[in-house]
């Protein structure tokens, strides 16, 4: 099979086209002929060397969709030819987290696809049967590839972790990116008022088009005063912080009494500081979110089929152009999720 292999940590020149031996599914596994794989900022950070568990050389990418090509022994839940999306991470199916339907928190599976185990910048991949979800008719492979990570992270973080209620004000940092643009859409679906923060004026129209009620353009991420002004002085009820530390100071200043702050992304991997009194006196909650459950991915694919949610595919490129996709991500040219197609 053809694949793009990450040879070592570094620049885009580390992504190299290679011909690899076709993988063979083992017991409980399914061979998937990939048709699309989303390009996540996580992939860029993996290439840069931020994650010590990245296998080198190895195939990165965890946003996969395709068709079942072959079945390993004792794999019976899917038939050859069925259209499937792959969860970002393998899970064991029987630990305490899996039993409580928190399979995204399982620590006993094989790991994250494209990190500990081979991922989606390739024509074929072997995955555990339990990591697959059927893709309904009417949902394309590109759309399906965007569902588990970009849309799923937004949905799980807003619906389950932040428990957004109708009428609340939700502020999203990094709103024009893959997770951000879906967070804007999900917050709106949940009945919230959405305030999208972007560093680039060029992205304003894109954000308004995809459901933002208000857009704050702030190259310095100094958005607190404007967030307060837009909420009549009260501040926002939820901050969905995809940027991390660079947006922390403004996020804290822009939060209402009783607000929730959700850490979603961690772009510069820097720590934040918090005075306990700030959280105590305003009864604020500081939360983290990571991934999406299998059941939520099933729900989301159905919501996409019904047209309630629309995956935002910002562009698709052939697999051979993975390096160009990384360049577009790093230069922040991309709007929504870029997808590689096979
Ligand atoms: Zn991702
Ligand atoms: Zn488990």
Structurally, the number of domains stands at 2
Mean pLDDT, nearest integer? 96
Query: What proportion of the residues is helical, as a percent range?
Result: 25-40%
Task: Quickly give the CATH architecture of the largest domain.
Answer: Alpha-Beta Complex
The ligands found in this model are: zinc ion
Number of separate strands? 15
> What structural category arises from helix and sheet content?
alpha/beta
User: What is the number of helices?
Assistant: 10
Strand and helix order: EEEHEEHEEHEHEHEHEHEHEHEHE
Q: Specify the biggest β-sheet.
A: 7 strands, mixed
Q: Name the CATH superfamily classification of the largest domain.
A: Medium-chain alcohol dehydrogenases, catalytic domain
Quote the beta fraction.
25-35%
Shape: globular
Give the low-confidence spans: none
CATH class value of the largest domain = Alpha Beta
CATH topology group of the largest domain: Quinone Oxidoreductase, Chain A, domain 1
């Amino acid at each position: 099979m053809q694949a793009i292999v990450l040879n070592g940590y570094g620049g885009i020149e580390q992504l190299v086209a290679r011909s690899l031996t076709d993988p063979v599914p083992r017991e409980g596994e399914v061979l998937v002929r990939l048709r699309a794989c989303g390009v996540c900022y996580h992939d860029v950070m993996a290439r840069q060397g931020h994650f010590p568990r990245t296998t080198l050389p190895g195939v990165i990418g965890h946003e996969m969709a395709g068709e079942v090509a072959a079945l390993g022994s004792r794999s019976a839940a899917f038939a050859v030819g069925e259209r499937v999306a792959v969860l970002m991470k393998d899970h064991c199916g029987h630990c305490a987290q899996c039993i409580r339907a928190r399979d995204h928190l399982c620590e006993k599976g094989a790991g994250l696809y494209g990190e500990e185990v081979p991922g989606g910048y390739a024509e074929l991949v072997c995955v555990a049967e339990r990591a697959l979800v059927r893709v309904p008719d009417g949902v394309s492979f590109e759309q399906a590839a965007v569902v588990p990570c970009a849309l799923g992270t937004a949905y799980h973080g807003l619906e389950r972790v932040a428990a957004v209620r109708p009428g609340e004000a939700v502020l999203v940092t990094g709103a024009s990116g893959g997770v951000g643009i879906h967070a804007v859409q999900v917050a709106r679906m949940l009945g919230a008022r959405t305030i999208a923060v972007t560093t680039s004026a060029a992205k304003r129209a894109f954000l308004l088009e995809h459901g933002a009620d208000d857009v704050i353009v702030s190259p310095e991420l100094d958005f607190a005063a404007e967030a307060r002004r837009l909420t009549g002085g009260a501040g926002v009820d939820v901050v969905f912080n995809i940027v991390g530390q660079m947006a922390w100071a403004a996020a804290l200043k822009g939060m209402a009494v009783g607000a929730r702050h959700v850490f979603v992304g961690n772009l510069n991997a820097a720590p934040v500081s918090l005075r306990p009194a700030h959280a105590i006196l305003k009864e604020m909650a500081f939360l983290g979110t990571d991934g999406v459950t299998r059941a939520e991915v099933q729900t989301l694919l159905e919501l996409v089929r019904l047209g309630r949610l629309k995956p935002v595919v910002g562009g698709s490129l052939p697999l051979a152009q993975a390096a160009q996709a990384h360049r577009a991500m790093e230069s922040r040219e991309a709007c929504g999720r870029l997808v590689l197609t096979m």
